[in-house]
Amino acid sequence: MTNETYMNHPNFGLLYRVCLVEENKELFTTLYAQRLFFLVTNGIGGIKFEPLGRSDARLMVEIRLRQLRRNGQAVEYQKLQTVHKNTFQ
To answer: pTM higher than 0.85 for the full model?
Structure first.
């Protein structure tokens, strides 16, 4: 069973969660094209969408992959590695 997370953006419609970046920060992309990326921050002031370029989004995923590998989280690492390949290659 996969644990997929979706969010509705006010202008771009349904977004798909790529990965957790930090606590209260997640990387999302448009569901079908996977060309537009957003850093979504959930804080005291509510949800904030920050648009990102493809290269910045890719860098965030690669940083997260390194963190997972260093922490020995092999299952999460493999899942995110698959997402990385499907999204950026």
So the answer is: yes
